[in-house]
Amino acid sequence: MAIMVIRYIAEKEGKMESPAIETELYAFFDKHEIVYETHRHDPVFTVEEAQTVRAGMEGGHSKNLFVRDKKKNHALIVAHEDQPVDMKDLAAKIGLGRLSFASPDRLMTHLGVAPGSVTPFSLFNAHRKATPEGRKIHVVVDGKLLSYDLVYFHPLHNAATTSVSPEHLIKFIKACGFEPAIVTF
Asked: 54-66: per-residue pLDDT in tens?
């Protein structure tokens, strides 16, 4: 059985309540014995804002990009927050055409999250939908990020941050039906 620890940090009046889907995500973690810990904080929309709320969260922090090429192939890029991402080089490494950011509508359609909440955990939404489009997402993970003891991501909204081990991140991605490409940027 997975160990579930939820730690509420900096509770403030008016803080966003957790969406119901977060509870479903944690049930999926428990089913697949993925150990996690969640930290609550005010909503953050950028890497810079996230850096201001991470007291006590030692490990690898990410930036997550949802991109597409002209042939409507999509990719979720999970990179270390400080890692520059050369889209042209990355496209060549993963066998896609010229990459650009996917629209907010595509993000919601394929991953079920809004801009500012992109996370590898949104593959859970793609898994739940089980549409052919959802299965065509390329998942790219930065090898540098996997060198940390813990890695941190939003749990489908940006008012919390959840940690897992790199091994459990990969286990989660595979449990959602995706095979991650580990890439050196």
From this structure: 888 999 999 999 9
Sign of CA dihedral 81, 96, 103, 112: negative
Distances (CA, A) of 52 to 42, 43, 46, 116, 167: 10, 11, 10, 15, 26
- The verdict on domain 4-183 having CATH code 3.40.50.1820 is no
Instruction: Count CB neighbours of 132 within 10 A.
Output: 7
pLDDT tens-place string over residues 66-116: 999 999 899 999 999 999 999 999 999 999 999 999 999 999 999 999 888
Q: Dump pLDDT digits (tens) for 156-167.
A: 998 999 999 999
3-state secondary structure of 77: strand
Q: How far is CA 130 from the centre of its chain?
A: 18
Query: Could you tell me if 177 and 33 are in contact, meaning their C-beta atoms sit under 8 angstroms apart?
Result: no
CA–CA distance from 126 to each of 49, 123, 129, 138, 185 (Å)?
Answer: 27, 5, 5, 12, 25
For residue 148, the tally of other CB atoms under 10 A from its CB is 16
Give, for 68, the enclosing helix (H) or strand (E): strand 60-68
pTM: 0.86
